């Protein structure tokens, strides 16, 4: 068929032999095109492959990656609850902060959480799909398995005791921008907490009320009181029943227990019950601490939820030394025991 057309063209060309060279050239091109249309098609395809495809399949993914790299996730609220030795329930609200002018759809992906400069992930999260815009809010609510206990314990210790830190969300997932083909991007996003990121070693921890219990108690406690713990972060942490070792200059003086401790953002106050060694305490106020004021050092001992020890909280609490001052004589007086011990109003005279 094509050959026939070429023949006809050739005949026409002969008829117009006398026309100027320009027209003749046009005709030549036309004939060339007709004869070598397949070559032109190949050249066209080659141009597409060489110029367009790299833009779509190399330039575009690179651009997509570059734009994704501009994103920072700001956590506006975070709650760790229902803890078990190997898992916890995570609720997380975050706001995407990005300077990119593109707003692609980001597919859901399996994200891993890492401490800065740490290769092993401490946990994996199912990150839901989002439209990436500055200010996009996303909500995560899932049961999370702890992936690496050493890393997770490092994380809890970091949250408790390190003033400034950041964690990273890593992973790989699909990205779709308008009608362009779907591409994959790598995530390595910095995660920041709104406001303060650290519990700041529980600075501000204090015993704000203290009573000596003179009647027999079912749990064996001989003192109770109120412990306050400020939490400057947006984190809420359920730690279970927490026990604290109390000592004075290295000598144990008792153990305090806080039932069902949930540390919420802001100022927290918890009821505590304590079993103190009254012999040791009374001896102290008659010897080295005649003022009656005991400088008490406090270190976490256990954290138990549903009858299971939570090693990752215990290690963090054990590594964090707290202290408060306790006016024992005032407490003895309130309990009506000062006279029996022969202690006058402010200072013991032993
Ligand atoms: C996210 O956090 C960064 C650094 O903490 C801050 O500069 C930015 O304004 C925050 N963005 C949003 C949307 O909160
Ligand atoms: C992103 O959103 C934040 C808060 O809504 C705003 O302060 C910031 O200027 C926005 N940044 C850009 C690049 O639009
Ligand atoms: C996410 O990836 C990790 C590592 O490949 C894997 O162990 C984990 O099961 C994955 N999680 C989900 C929900 O797919
Ligand atoms: C701790 O609480 C007691 C009793 O309320 C108070 O007298 C004391 O000043 C507080 N200590 C600190 C460091 O705030
Ligand atoms: C301590 O125990 C006494 C007597 O049982 C009770 O009246 C008081 O409310 C308790 N205080 C705290 C802070 O638990
Ligand atoms: C109280 O402490 C003394 C030493 O100071 C110790 O001998 C005694 O066993 C302790 N009592 C209890 C009940 O732990
Ligand atoms: C809690 O654990 C202890 C020992 O680990 C066990 O003896 C006890 O029965 C358990 N209690 C409950 C309510 O599971
Ligand atoms: C406190 O002690 C002083 C003398 O040591 C005494 O005069 C005063 O009455 C006492 N006050 C009380 C409330 O016991």
UniProtKB/TrEMBL annotation:
This protein's superkingdom?
Eukaryota
Q: Where is this region: Disordered?
A: 1-23
Q: Basic and acidic residues bias: where?
A: 1-20
Give Gene Ontology CC terms: fungal-type vacuole membrane
Record key words, sorted: Membrane, Transmembrane, Transmembrane helix
Would I find RNA-binding among this entry's keywords? no
Q: Name one Pfam family in it.
A: DUF3712
Q: Per the record's keyword annotation, is Membrane included, yes or no?
A: yes
Kindly list the residue ranges recorded as spanning the membrane: 37-60
InterPro entries, alphabetized: DUF3712, Tag1
Q: What is this protein called?
A: Late embryogenesis abundant protein LEA-2 subgroup domain-containing protein
Organism per entry = Exophiala bonariae
